[in-house]
Amino acid sequence: MFWHARKALDLIRNRPEAPSLATSEGPVICPADLFPAIKVSEVMAGLVRLVGLPPVDLGTDIDWRTDPHRNRSWTLNLHALRWVGGLIAEYERSGEAEYLDRATRIAEDWARANPRGATGISPWAWAEHPVALRAPVLVCLSAHVRDDWLSESLVEHAEILSDPALYRRGHNHGLDQDIALLTVGCRLGQERWKDLAVRRMTDSAELAIDAQGVLHEQAPRYGIYVHRRLGVAIEAIRASGAEVPAGLVARRDSLETYVSHATQPDGRLVPIGDSPADTRPSGFRHGEDTVRVFDDGYVFGRTAWDDPRSAFYSIRFGAGRRLHGHEDHLGVTYHAHGRDILVEAGFHSYQRTAYRRWTISPEAHNVPVVVGADLREGTATRLVGSSVTQARQCYRFTDTAYGVGRTRSVLVGHGADLMAVLDSVPAGSALRNLWHFAPSLTVVANRDGQVVLADGEWWVTLLQLATPSGRPLGGQTVRTETIALGHLRQAEATTVLSPPAESVLTLIVPGTADPEVTRSGGRLSVRTPGGHVSLRWDPDLGFADRAPAHSGDGQVKTTVR
Q: Which among 92, 101, 285, 358 is placed 20 to 30 Å from 366, CA to CA?
């Protein structure tokens, strides 16, 4: 018995001392973009503004369970404490101790009011993303405060961040976890945390970003976020004294191609997936290619770079929906003459509402839906043919998202701006396609398969033709839908729904209310403001000037300069 007692005492004596700010001289790595802009005077008075919502008076005795806006993003950001970091930054700028005192009181109050595992605390207190965003704030505070509560909280955060069961590999949250673990590891002098963070960053980036630069989260807006956060990660690695992995730098650089091609000529990001329609990337480099097919499921094309009047389009295909993607396969957008024409319903918020569910659904996108059939969520779509020249581009896609073959062929004319879309399903089935127009456009005419929309003295015409006859296909339904202009911003917009048909050819002609269409044999000629466009189509083959169908996986790497 005495031997066991001595053994236990030796284990206690030899146990490694817990990391502590009292004994650590590790560097304080405070990422440059950590803190959002705040009104310091408001926060000092107890008012907090988060995620664009009205300010909330938290007072001096904060109820950390509060959720005044019933908004997930607001509550996440409350517990992330990044708004407290603004006070630390103001103290470092001004030297006024009151700002540091207030930041310390809030952070300590949070730590004491939210013990992990306690009942009655907010579920957001220890959710994985608030932990990742909060830990660097505590590290920044530790440059000025070394109290035991802060040491203990940093250790607890690091233990959570290093737990493989809680790690979001290949996700933007995982990148934030890695940045946080690296900063805590450096501050507390723990090499095991530092090394783990850097190893995971590289592995996660190679999973999240493919060799062409496409982020697999299926929303270009997150390409901007991950690019920025990878920049923070690289600077943090350098500050830690470690070597920056070359693969990490390469993956970050490749994101620039993806984001730049997904940016419309007016400077806004095309609102694909959870990408707000008012997002404006800046500083992303691009090459000379004006058309780019990304194998992971995007086609982006434009008339020219750095010209706000350039035409622009996007098309979605590829792997089934995941993470921040929508059920938007076969969906197109179109921008021409300096205007949005065909738009997506976009991203409004992460609130779990019926509207959020609708914005993700096919009906919120410019797609064909099969009448009387249920969507098979997460179905992949293949690009099976393409032809790319400077004057026009043609693509053909297919999937079984509704249990039957659904095929869409897209032709885009540049110079003489035109978008032609041919949709078809097998005999015995019928489809209806949806066309969501920009909120600035209102319907001024609808008859005989022709819908004209206008914004003042500018017009765009949608024409729908039956196939194979090429005769006008009437019976369009025009209705009003609510689309998102940005986070928590909405507008009414016109949606045109085609009549049921086995196959339908849709023409979008910008800049005119009266495009002349002539038919001769199997060929159409469309008069546009930029000149005549001639096209030939077949319901079973698509547009005649497309390239032969690709075999195998349908991977296409065509570009045009």
A: 285
